Amino acid sequence: MSKEMMISGLEKFPLKQIVDERGAVFHYLKSSDSTFKGFGEAYYSKVNPGIIKGWKKHNLVHQHFCVPVGAVKIVIFDNRENSPTNGHFNEIILDELDNYVRLSIPPGLWYSFKCISESFALLANIIDTPHDPNESEVLPLETKKINYLWK
Ligand SMILES: Cc1cn([C@H]2C[C@H](O)[C@@H](COP(=O)(O)OP(=O)(O)O[C@H]3O[C@@H](C)C(=O)[C@@H](O)[C@H]3O)O2)c(=O)[nH]c1=O
């Protein structure tokens, strides 16, 4: 498994958390952000401890992930034909503490994600068009088409 530079078009942006004695404000996405492609829908994927979701690929939608609750390991695989990082994998931790970042994901990338926190994780997603089950594809985690074995 080749695991090196960031997959082409995939971007990670550290996010601010403004903490005080009452709690905190967690930044997430601004329409002025360079990778903002418009607003379609925001939702959460709740993942229970140890559960792995995916493989999933959105063919049209641009996604912005962050994990404000818990911790998630996400594996992204690029099998886009003309991509300079075709065949590459990225493994990225998203969480509410040390890795509170926004992951900007262009269409066409396969991914799966596992809750690695003791309690459930909320993976927040803002997409640029409303959810359309017909523009995405799924593959079972044990597919032979993606050479990655979740431990
Ligand atoms: C994403 C989404 C799902 N659903 C429905 C479809 C299905 O019946 C149920 C569960 O959907 P899923 O199994 O796809 O949910 P889940 O496995 O949590 O995955 C979700 O996580 C994020 C990160 C994605 O990648 C999304 O595409 C979505 O697949 O919720 C909606 O009604 N609206 C939505 O916006």
From TrEMBL:
Its EC number is 5.1.3.13. Coiled coil: none annotated. It catalyses: dTDP-4-dehydro-6-deoxy-alpha-D-glucose = dTDP-4-dehydro-beta-L-rhamnose. Pfam families: dTDP_sugar_isom. Catalyzes the epimerization of the C3' and C5'positions of dTDP-6-deoxy-D-xylo-4-hexulose, forming dTDP-6-deoxy-L-lyxo-4-hexulose. This is dTDP-4-dehydrorhamnose 3,5-epimerase. It comes from Aquirufa echingensis. The lineage of its organism: Bacteria, Pseudomonadati, Bacteroidota, Cytophagia, Cytophagales.
